[in-house]
Specification:
Layout (H helix, E strand, L loop, with lengths): L2 H27 L6 H8 L3 H5 L5 H24 L5 H18 L1 H12 L4 H4 L1 H14 L10 H24 L5 H21 L1
């Protein structure tokens, strides 16, 4: 391996080290705790080195959010692997979404907090388009007459997002919600969402 390849590999390793350290801080202490100094201390490099990879803390958080959307998409795709029935696929997708948001709570909060400060969310997070298209693809077979207009899709997509955000927020607030109750709420809400889609 030549010196140029070694330098590139080292740069990629340090870049990954920075993101892994930031992710650890987010998971253990929340996104407010992330700082360039704390990342530098964690990986035992100087803040100057971290700044040579990322302009500021916000740039690190945006990169973590991109990683979060990729993880979420993979989680949903895994949940759909063995499911064929359209209703069951929509249910599996929403279940996977809620489980990801609950399991990766701090990262999930970061993904949607960072997005609110970005001028063009679609441009900043290309994986978001993939995520939205997953919903479009799974909603299509549920629609009466099999024609999903853009307006109907947007409306139903926002209903799904509102439901997931709401349930995840309730679980953060009421820390003693029984998992069986969560599943019951999840099932009933998903039935309601699917019936709304079917009427579109």
């Amino acid at each position: 391996m030549g010196s140029k390849e070694r330098v590139e590999r080292l740069k990629a390793e340090v870049h990954q080290l920075i993101l892994d350290a930031a992710m650890g801080i987010v998971k253990n202490e929340g996104c407010e705790a992330v700082s360039i100094r704390k990342i530098a201390d964690t990986i035992e490099y100087s803040p100057t080195i971290v700044y040579s990879y990322f302009l500021n803390k916000e740039a690190v958080l945006i990169e973590l959010s991109k990683r979060g959307f990729t993880m979420l998409i993979n989680c949903i795709k895994q949940g759909l692997v063995s499911v064929t029935d359209p209703k069951e696929r929509m249910e599996a997708m929403l279940m996977a979404f809620v489980h990801f948001a609950t399991k990766e709570n701090e990262l999930y909060q970061l993904m949607y907090t960072v997005g609110s400060g970005v001028e063009d969310v679609g441009k900043a997070f290309p994986a978001l388009s993939t995520f939205i298209n997953l919903f479009r693809q799974e909603m299509q077979p549920l629609v009466k007459g099999n024609t999903l207009t853009e307006e109907a899709f947007r409306c139903n997509y926002l209903i799904c997002m509102s439901f997931v955000h709401g349930l995840v927020s309730l679980n953060r607030y009421y820390k003693d919600i029984d998992p069986a109750m969560n599943n019951m709420v999840l099932k009933k809400a998903i039935e309601g969402i699917i019936s709304t889609i079917e009427l579109s």
